[in-house]
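ESCALATION

Customer reports they have been waiting on this structure for their group meeting. Please prioritize. Original submission:
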Amino acid sequence: MTYTILVSDELAEEGIEILREHAMVDVNTGLSEDELVATIENYDALLVRSGTQVTERVIEAGKKLQFIGRAGAGVDNIDMNAATRHGVIVANAPEGNTLAATEHTMAMMQSLCRNIPQANASMQAGEWKRSKFMGVELNDKTLGIVGLGRIGREVAKRASSFNMHIIGYDPFISPDKAAEMGIESMSLDELFTKADIITVHTPLIKETRHIINEKTIATMKDGVRIVNCARGGIIDEAALAKEVKSGKIAGAAIDVFEEEPPKNCPLIGIPNIIVTPHLGASTVEAQKNVSISIAKQCLEVLGGRDAKYVVNAPIIPSEQHETIEPYATLGERMGRLMIQIIEGRIQKLEMIYGGELATLGQSAKLITHMAIKGLLDPILRFPVNMVNAAYIAKDRGITVSETTTGESAGYKNLLTMKITTDSAELVISGSVLYKGGARIVSIAGYTMDMVPEGAVIISRHLDKPGVIGRASTILGEHKINIAGMQVGRFQPGEEAIMVLNVDADVPEEVMEAIRGMPGIYSAKFARI
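Update from on-call: job pushed to the front of the queue and completed.
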């Protein structure tokens, strides 16, 4: 069978040549949405970069469309929901720019330590001021890497060749896994106090926004140097500018900004701050790599096989749909809840299939993968799904096991997830009722009947009169409505659990007020 592929953005020729060995390929760039809608019905696959907007109109018009490939990491120009609804697989090429971003990080680090851009500008101006640009060596310095994904690990390899001591923080990399890479794992707070140079390589999510700020900078060594070639927003730009000017920070090298192109950015124009216009992936080799990667994935999918970097879930076979889909959704929501309320680095995930779920065999892996998605998707830069979940978990040193049992606590089916971290353990069970929908029926051994959706507060408290009432009063004072409540206990007067479904996100200061109440042992907010 001959497949037809449309390439609607400039793609390196190496990738196009791979496609042409197996398919009919048309390269037609600069199409408007209307033009793309008019022509896409003839193609089995569409390959784009960032220029083409793959809207719902385009996807609906692609009657033969099986695959959309993004030659790069981001997929924000593709309507993911529409693609999934229409059964179109979407994949990207996140690894193609790994070495480019790694090398740019090293170049920025060395330029920062040796004042290379400033010295070059001085020479170009006709000056000869050697003493003005005295630098420092990387040798024997402590490099703190925040985020030990692909790029962070590659930076560590190269920094070790400079005889640097490498320390790192990543909540989803075990200390043993880090040690295998020659990295001493530690908490973020400890890393900030020990590093001579700090480089960040995390996604920009709620937990990483402004992790380098005025407060954390105060804990760092005097004369620390900071590099960001990851995402704008990880560093508070105003705080960084202030502390470079004060001398607390010796200098910074920044490739990414909170607003791009930056307008009125406080980092621009400060002599000790090196800035580049988001050049991390801008190499000939990186563009070649992403082109080849997406071309190969396109042919894999068109040939009926899985692609490595699929970013939306594949269609569930019709014969499995009735059972698998609701439990896959439940597993994802249970995982999403667990990651928000447990402490420590995940080491192990156990999936226990009870009742009739025990008969699913290999099909249960779809539920397992969605549970992993729920655990990891909120904190990773790239999407996790049924296809890549197991690979990502393994890559981060997380052991995943599946167990079947005839026991189901009186339910027809019972899905149980047990997470073990380096400091805690948590078990949650859930079931899909015949007419009542999905429920979480047990948290940490406490029985309940919780609808797994929306915003929730989970607290452990002393089972005494007034404790629950005081928590409710605090929420009421901040105009946060309670939509539902579940409580559980083992023995009267001892520790109990409370789950509150609320109608809005709860600000951290409100959560702190609840945690500070007498009788409250812990309280966590989560959005499922």
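Sent to customer with the following note: The radius of gyration is 26 Å.
Escalation resolved.
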